[in-house]
């Protein structure tokens, strides 16, 4: 009676994991929860509906640290759970339910100081808060259900009466978009900030006879922040063939007990085949490109990074450095990560950076 596949694990995501706070995984938006029929068709055929006495939902707490975060997962999905329990499928109407949630119910929950979920501003095809372009671009926005989005492009915080989003936002200069959802009740959701940076393609360099792979430096011990890693290392300039080698340097039993922790980095060059806008994603603690910090997950639960970044890169070789911290952070063992760095040309498919793209001197 608690099917994860039907949205009844309330520790699953309600929106894009690139913008939502960390959950265990999955996807359970409000409409999916509301659509569940707890009475199997086989029982209906046999006239045994009366034997289904109720429904329940789970909300596992691996990544829930405060009462407010607990409420964020529960509401308004608990309202959908209630209607699933007391309303037959024939009388349910999600459009009407959403109308009630976003009007009267939202006011009541706010009155009771419940930290309920209001959809965040997202982007089609996967959200990214750090965009790049060379001449002009357009930014498309969406939400998990039809609601008004307000936004500004002058650096000010959005207000209920700010400009409504009705069409893609056209940009030809570096711009900060600050956007939020406004419910029909007039209540605003959390703000989302998207920075779109205009720049020329960062030039790649040429290398004479580069060697395949990367160079690893390693320090034994538990490090909570990359800034704590000493300048001298226990292992220096070890040749490795890929980025994923970062997480293979110690034995990790299934219960993750008594692990000899370490911090490690790999450095070298990433070969880019053609000029373009490229998006990077990783759960590793940091990614550096051309000596600039591209992704910083130091203050995040390293489960699903929310810090993807687009960069305008020219053809050629670009410096790359990836830092891994081994341990359990916020309930998540980083040894369970793939430790890879994913890359895609904007609009393309994600792929892990492959060994044949990596070189060192």
From TrEMBL:
| Residue span, PA14 domain | 210-356
User: What residues form the membrane-spanning segments?
Assistant: none
According to its UniProt record, the EC number is 3.2.1.52
* GO-annotated molecular function: beta-N-acetylhexosaminidase activity
Q: Which GO biological process entries does UniProt record here?
A: carbohydrate metabolic process; glycosaminoglycan metabolic process
Q: Does the entry feature the keyword Hydrolase, yes or no?
A: yes
UniProt keyword terms in alphabetical order: Hydrolase
UniProt signal peptide: none
Q: Which SMART domains match?
A: PA14 (SM00758)
Name the enzyme group at the top EC level: hydrolase
Q: Which reaction does it catalyse?
A: Hydrolysis of terminal non-reducing N-acetyl-D-hexosamine residues in N-acetyl-beta-D-hexosaminides
Check the record and name the Pfam families matching this protein: CHB_HEX_C_1, Glyco_hydro_20, PA14
**What's any one GO cellular component for it?**
membrane
As for family, the record states: Belongs to the glycosyl hydrolase 20 family.
What name does this protein carry? beta-N-acetylhexosaminidase
